[in-house]
Amino acid sequence: MAIKGSDIYPGQRIKIPAFVLLGLSGVLFAIYCTVTLRADKFAHLAMSLVFLCAALSNLWDNRLSLKLGTNALSIAIGSGLVGAVLYQSWQPPTGLYLGFAPFIVALGMMGLASGVQALGQYQVELVTLFCLGVPKLLLKILPDISPLTAQFSTYLLWYSGFSVQLTDNVIRLPDGAVRVVPSCSGLNLITYMLAITAIFLLMFPLPITAKIWAPFVAVMLGFFINGIRVALLALLSTKNNPALFDYWHSNEGALLFVMLTVVLFGLFCWWIVRQTELNLPK
Length: 282
Fold this sequence. Notes:
The protein is mainly alpha-helical and 282 residues long. The protein has helices at residues 18-38, 42-61, 72-88, 95-114, 123-138, 146-159, 187-203, 208-236, 242-249, 251-278, and strands at 165-167, 170-173, 176-179.
């Protein structure tokens, strides 16, 4: 539809049909999935789905109270944000793009739906999607924990009865060895688990003890599960089966450990919420 000159004023409301917004959102989501898979980031895509489901769940709960209707300025800003993400999708994907593209697209779509001045009603959803990109920023400043991961995995193998030695982050077994590099240290998984914890604490009112335990459990789960994966890779290096080792070392194999970590933390969160409800005064 044509926009009249009077439409440029913030007070003029323009309602974009819901099916247009939903269709555009679906197309953008499909493009994001394609770019992520093209970058071979299966684990990141799985995490993205967790964050998107959390944001959509909260959006659905509040759907009846949302104020819809935008203006020409907000349409221009929203279209610019969406267009920038679309343009970047044609470039080689970077970690920051994959992390913050959903947040930027959400800003643009919410501007198209409700206007820039009404973004406050989407604050939970926006914080949720912003948290998806935070690990990409943290990884640039956090110290390398690969020596600690190598020590932990070595201890797991030693306590399990294997003859194992650790030298300069290299876990050596009689017939094989693996080097624990920063990308395999588990720091990436730990930062994602902290981001999920932030969403959990944002969406559920919990006592202070639960707020302290939740991030601690998230970090420990991420570190422990990744340590098991590294120990498994060390064992597989002793087998004459490179294909099996390559699979568990690939992003596809890592995805299973990521999913296990998220499921275990989800069970912990369910238990905390359940205990909080039981302790509420009748």
